[in-house]
Amino acid sequence: MNITRRSLMIASASLAPLGQALAQGTYPNKTIKIVAPFTAGAASDTLLRKITEAAGKLLGQPMIVDNKPGAQAAIAARIVAKAPNDGYTLIMGGNSSHAANVHTLKNPGYDPVKDFTPITQLSLNPLMLVVNAELPVRTLQEFVSYAKERPGKLNYATGNSGMLVAAKLLTTNAGIDAMGVNYPGAAPATTDLIAGRIDFIMNDPVVAAPFIKSGQLRALGVTSKQRIPLFPNVPTIAEQGLPSYEYASWSAMFAPAGLPADITRKLHQAFAQVMSDPEMVRFAAAAGIIPLATTPEQLQAFVQEQIKLWERWAKESGITPA
């Protein structure tokens, strides 16, 4: 059984009928705000808006998305860490906000374990190596050769810590010298890639998809060990001569620390029900996303594992806290 089916089954087995759970208290009785640490139009933003629409209907109250990009998701995380723990302010966090920043920022301004209540993991998000279609390369091997012939001449965009470490792992594993350029998110980075102002990017598949299909961009490899349904003909980086290469971003729902157990349970039930819905599974597949629905306890353990993993990744890719 694969990780997606196993996680969804575990979450589904823990669900009581949502209406029964809501009847046990008055929460929620007003709009719930989800702070998003990414720009509108990013793959995670697209996923979040789909999730909040469905979860809001289950909970009987609207959910709104408040985009607060920047500082590798630290801006959004700080806002939610300091918010009241009443269940009306949440964050769709992920590898940047709740793992990488421990090792990439000197002072994130929050503790990803102590300052948050885990609710559920939502997804795994593989990235893709994408170049401007005018770059004279069609495979990873051609790209590596092209870059090695131009040491220090190519640049790449980093819109978050996931994009950064995925690119750093590539340059380190392939032995190429390229310069990173920081962007507030994947969408503006993609705009500059199309315009030719940068040379390559480790991009969200759903953000890159329309431009790949239009012929403006070209996908050279997937960062996960498995190909994705959205681009089944794009091979993984690992199967193109870099067998140890593997990276995937992830997303999860968190609340401020100290969220009451009954509210945590209601939110978990709603999000788990949404993520296990067949329509959401199909939507995620079309967006290059692997849907998940884990328990709060599983998410807590996962975050701690990811913090340790990012320590190794930061060292391997030469990232020092900024």
Automatic annotation (TrEMBL):
<comment type="similarity">
    <text>Belongs to the UPF0065 (bug) family.</text>
</comment>
<keyword id="KW-0732">Signal</keyword>
<dbReference type="InterPro" id="IPR005064">
    <property type="entry name" value="BUG"/>
</dbReference>
<protein>
    <submittedName>
        <fullName>Tripartite-type tricarboxylate transporter receptor subunit TctC</fullName>
    </submittedName>
</protein>
<dbReference type="Pfam" id="PF03401">
    <property type="entry name" value="TctC"/>
</dbReference>
<dbReference type="InterPro" id="IPR042100">
    <property type="entry name" value="Bug_dom1"/>
</dbReference>
<keyword id="KW-0675">Receptor</keyword>
<feature type="signal peptide">
    <location>
        <begin position="1"/>
        <end position="23"/>
    </location>
</feature>
